[in-house]
Amino acid sequence: MRRQRAQRRAGAPSGGSLGVFVSDEPPRAAGRTAAPALLLGAALLLTGCGGQDKGAHAGASPAGGTEKLPQATTYTTLNDLPRDAAPSAKGDGTVVHPNDTVPVSAKPGAPAMAELPSTQLKGPTWVPVLESRPGWRRVLLPSRPNGVTGWIPDSGLKAARSTSAIKVDLGDRKLTLTRAGRKVGTWPVAVGAPKTPTPTGRTFLLASLAPEKPTYSPLILPVGAHSATLDTFGGGPGTVAFHGWPSKSVFGKAVTHGCVRVPAGALKQLSKVPLGTSVQITD
User: Start and end of every L,D-TPase catalytic domain (predicted)?
Assistant: First the structure.
């Protein structure tokens, strides 16, 4: 596996989970589509954090001469959008899903700097809402740099509210899941090693991948954050993920490439968490 120290500098990152119509719960992570060969490859990278930036930069012109905006996905870097100014803040659980690709701006009404597609990793895009203004929603995105945000029009969105919250304490090496304010469980987990730490701050549950032929985990749950020290890992974009691990001896240790390895019981509960749900990682 080729590993490179990240050369991208902080500027703005990219995202997934539940506008206009509000329901009680967004779609759950469990039971979404099984990962085909291409996604299985992506899933394998997510466990460590790697990959190359597949997205065009804002303002890049395609062969036709017209400007093509970059897609706000886990594969892109969006340096022209604002960062999350309050990475430790707690949201109200509101998540939105664009019914179609929507423009992403640095400010409400400003020119679009990127586009948020309606799907991510073959599943629906659900991103958490950080702020709302008349006609606009500021959302957390799944791109690099970590914590990148953008404003999207409120029209054409489906909204829901996730009552779940995931917290990872890197110091204690524990994961806690709550639902409607009540603790579902706390589990010891394996986190990033000193040279490949798990990134801190708030992110969200981006996707759910079920490999057809699982090796170390039956389910891989990417989040909207990337490794700060690995630019590539096995050919992927360095996306951090929750996943299982065959050996229980790793739990409670700092031994991963940035991902969070969880016990089977934790993975089962995480599989029930809606996409777009807040993930808070603290040290």
Answer: 164-282
Burial state string for 183-221 with b = 16 or more CB within 10 A and e = fewer than 16: ebeebbbbbbeeebbbbbbbbbbbbbbbbeebeebebbb
Closest listed residue to residue 225, CA positions, set 8, 19, 7, 13 = 13
Catalytic residues: 243, 259
Q: Distance of CA 185 to CAs 221, 265, 274, Å? A: 18, 9, 17
Residues 218 and 210: their CA atoms lie apart, in Å, by 6
**For the chain, which domains are there?**
164-282 (2.40.440.10)
Distance CA 51, CA 124 (A): 21
Q: What type of residue is 77?
A: T
**Hey, what amino acid is at 170?**
L
Tokens, residue 9? 């500098």
CB 204 within 8 A of CB 17: yes
Other C-beta atoms lying within 10 Å of the C-beta of residue 246: 11
Residues 22-49: pLDDT tens digits? 222 344 444 443 333 334 444 544 444 3
Tens digits of residue pLDDT in 209-242:
999 999 999 999 999 999 999 987 777 899 999 9
Low-confidence ranges of the chain (pLDDT < 50): 1-42, 44-66
